Amino acid sequence: MKGALRLLYPPQCLGCGQPVGGAGDAGAGLCAECWRETRFITGTACGRCGAPLPDDGSGAPQETLICDDCLSIARPWRHGRAAMVYAGTGRQLVLALKHGDRPDLAPALAGWLSRAAAPLIRPGMIIAPVPLHPLRLLKRKYNQAALVSAHLARARGLEHVPDLLLRRRQTEGQDHRSVSDRFANVAGAIAANPRRAARAEGRAVLLIDDVTTSGATLAASAEALLAAGSGPVSVAVLARAVKDD
Q1: Per-residue pLDDT at 26
Q2: Whose C-alpha in 3, 13, 42, 79 is 20 to 30 A from the C-alpha of 233?
Q3: Which InterPro entries does this chain map to (predicted)?
């Protein structure tokens, strides 16, 4: 039955919508061209934020490798991973999920993130998304991070608490802000949900977001969880913005 449906409705590339033949895309749902334009982070990477790093041949454990940003900016979370670089098709897909009314992308993107986050997964861990302010949620209709985190939690058999965190005030967009301005913009804006905080007490939490640049929003979220008594916090994002090579 599935074979017949595939003949009638062949799979389409997540990026460009062209038919995907299955060869060369490694089952990722991308055509060969979009696959080439997607920079998956599969090699050496920062153990804090997931940014790709050059392989120095030392063979050091990835969790001990730290990028320049994470050396200069305090990170309240323990470890981090990212599925891809925020560029090319990766950027296109994140923006389509976030602003393009494409919630149908969430299952495939969550699958990519699940593989990237595998080293962070622990039994009994809680999965939670970075929250949206209610007014922004009303305008956007869904929290893209929550869509991804729900699929990831289901795939990993872990508890998903989509409202573990709350946005106490609406913040302006982070684009085109300096690093210090990004942190100031979200300071005090995120808190643990008092109706859910007890579920995270003493338990490891994996925070999920769509994209990170400075890490300011993830930091505010992690600090809120730790202040509420959670166990260690790790982070996993679909895409990590990096400086041009």
Answers
A1: 45
A2: 42
A3: ComF/GntX_DNA_util-trans, DZR_2
